[in-house]
Specification:
mainly alpha, 9 helices, single chain, globular, 73% helix
Length: 217
């Protein structure tokens, strides 16, 4: 249970920061979002692995560090935290108007590609920096993960909305930042990116394959 509570706390503060900075039109919002992810990764990494992202959980599942029975409660905790954080962010900021990101036509394809690529990058960094046996106990994993989000948000945030995380996408839709009818774009792209990262990690690091009984330990 402590793993799931940790996932709730970390995802909550990530989505709450996304909401307050974007709704409040805060300059350098990507830096605040990446910094929040970084500190929450350091805070909860030793308990839950600090996924805070269903796509990362999927990557870790495919990598073999957790089981399917563990992954489902992770996803529930992450999505529940996102909705609660979104509601509170709207209450705190109380924006006059909110314009939803709603890609259409060619923009759908560019959003899908941008989201998939940077979600892949994020999950790939998590797997290599936080789960690899080649450098256990390193001190840089949180910084690497946080700044991957910063880089992605600055690079393609204006194109796709810069979620790179299905929980963030659900939170953003709850806040009115993403069009609910287009939520499939972020869910599909982000989960695909996470799955590809998990497969790629194992292809490049075959010695890291773990039996399920080890993953469940």
């Amino acid at each position: 249970m402590r793993r799931y509570i940790t996932e709730f706390i970390g995802t909550f503060f990530l989505v709450f920061t996304v909401g307050t900075t974007v709704l409040g039109q805060v300059p350098l919002a990507p830096l605040a979002i990446g910094a929040t992810l970084m500190v929450m990764v350091y805070a909860g990494g030793h308990i839950s692995g600090a996924h805070y992202n269903p796509a990362v959980t999927l990557a870790v599942l495919l990598r073999g560090k957790i089981t399917g029975a563990q992954a489902v409660p992770y996803w529930i905790a992450q999505l529940l935290a996102a909705v609660v954080a979104a509601i509170l962010a709207v209450f705190v900021v109380n924006p006059a108007t909110v314009t939803a990101v709603s890609p259409s036509g060619r923009d759908i394809w560019t959003a899908l590609l941008a989201e998939a690529l940077f979600t892949f990058a994020l999950a790939y960094v998590v797997l290599n920096a936080a789960t690899s046996g080649d450098h256990p106990g390193n001190s840089f994993y949180g910084l690497a993960i946080g700044f991957t989000v910063v880089a992605g948000a600055f690079a393609v945030g204006a194109i796709s909305g810069g979620a790179f995380n299905p929980a963030v996408a659900v939170g953003a839709a709850t806040m009115g930042l993403f069009d609910w009818t287009k939520i499939w774009i972020w869910l599909l792209a982000d989960l695909a990116g996470g799955a590809l990262a998990g497969v790629t990690f194992l292809a490049l690091n075959p010695k890291e394959r773990l039996p399920l009984e080890t993953a469940a330990a």
